[in-house]
Amino acid sequence: MKHIELLSLLCRHKKFLDEAYKQKRLLFVPSELVEVGLFSKVGGYYYLNDVYLNFVDTLLARADFSYVAEDFDKELKKLLDLKEDYKLSKNFYLKDAIFSLLNRIYQGMKNRDKKLLSLIESLESDDVSELDILIKEAKRILASIEEIMQKNSQISKVFEEFEGFEEFREFVGDGLVDIIKLNQNIDLYLKRLKEFISQSEKKRKFNQKLNKIALMILKEDGRIDEFLASKRFVYKGKITPLVDTTYLNYQKAREVIGSIKKEKNIKKVSIKKDLKEVIELINLKKLLARVRGSEDIFKAIVEYVGKIDRELLNESIRIFVYILNEYDKELIYTDEFNEFNVRVVRWRV
Amino acid sequence: MESVIFDILSKGVIISTNSSKFIKESRWLLDEDNFNSFNFLLNRLGFYLVGERGYFYLSKELKASEEEKVLNAHKNIILAIALLKRVFLHLDKGHRIKKSDFIKRFESKKDEAIVKVLFDSDDLIEITDKLFNLLEKNYILEKVSKQDEYLVLNSIDYYLDIVDGIGDGE
Questions:
Q1: Is the ipTM above a cut-off of 0.85?
Q2: Which of A241, A292, A303, A295 has its CA nearest to residue B42?
Q3: What's the pTM?
Q4: CB–CB of B58 and A235 under 8 A?
């Protein structure tokens, strides 16, 4: 079969090939694909030839965890043998074989670089696999990269040796420029993997701790309460002193204000008037006269405001904050809290 | 803006800077001058404005009567996060997760004891809904699409930091 015929065959069966590449195995494939050696049948299923998978993965820059990074050890040994032979007899066949091997190593290094990068990227973006598996895999790749680094310097040396031959000089010279860049990439991959391993180990350790703490909570271990109580919290309960009616304790307000002669329906909605408007409505001068000298300014505001208009009770906290801002230096901030859960602030005598 | 933010924070909300619901509020709080003046004001009311790694919350000293309720709420959320993290091992702030993925993976990962304490149910859908609701209600997850995708808010670190800080006897 000629190359062009093989390409036609692949095109004719592209859907099968695509399916087999995605599914890893198929129950049925056309016989001509089996005959040409693209598929082999094992255990009732048809599997794609590894050579084809390797070709596609390399071109698409994909790699899975089964990938084993090549070290080109055998190619390198053969290349050195051929070099010695070539020194003795510079024949065409030896020259062709040397070119092929140099090119195979050079292309192989470029392909390996793509696959390693793809492997590291898939490790980094994997948010499903168990951390133990990812760490183990990353360590395996790391070990092989460390070996590759040693081999790479050997490859560079051998390439440099071929620069002594006029006929290989240009090819080897160009190749070496790329090989230096590929070696730098390997160095970066090494750092990236080490960082990935360190972060994943931290994550694994933290998850273990989270499970342990969850177990302590379930067993009502006192150390949890002890720690939580010592921390400042997000306040989850309702806070009384708020502008919003949802949080104003009407029952408490009623107790403080006492009986109100004119019955009004209390609308549990926030008024949210302008602060200026609120201050005008309540008559600030009168309010100040009332609250000056008070033992608890907020309480005095609630009393005063509630008697003017109960709907304005919602605004008590804003008036309180306004007074704190305006008369800060005349006030004493105590450590106590009143029944509204508001800090007790007194007027300085 | 102070009163708007006070309204939000005083409901126990943790404002995360990666939340789409509180964009204006986060931007305002991220301004150092705003943060400091607001905190000064809140201090006088007996509260603390806490701004940590990408989130803000209001804090106060707890009264003895409030302690149990607040502690239990915290413990339940830590349990809920532990359950979520058993399924989504890599879970972190900023991640997007799907309820459907949780349902698919939960069976092999579930912790019976946590499920019993939090939800007391055997129904996978009910457990999932309750878990996501609990975390959404506490502003740790935020729904980002009409389907079932949720964003993990920065506030998750508030609880993870607590876990990190607790001594586990090791």
A1: yes
A2: A241
A3: 0.64
A4: yes
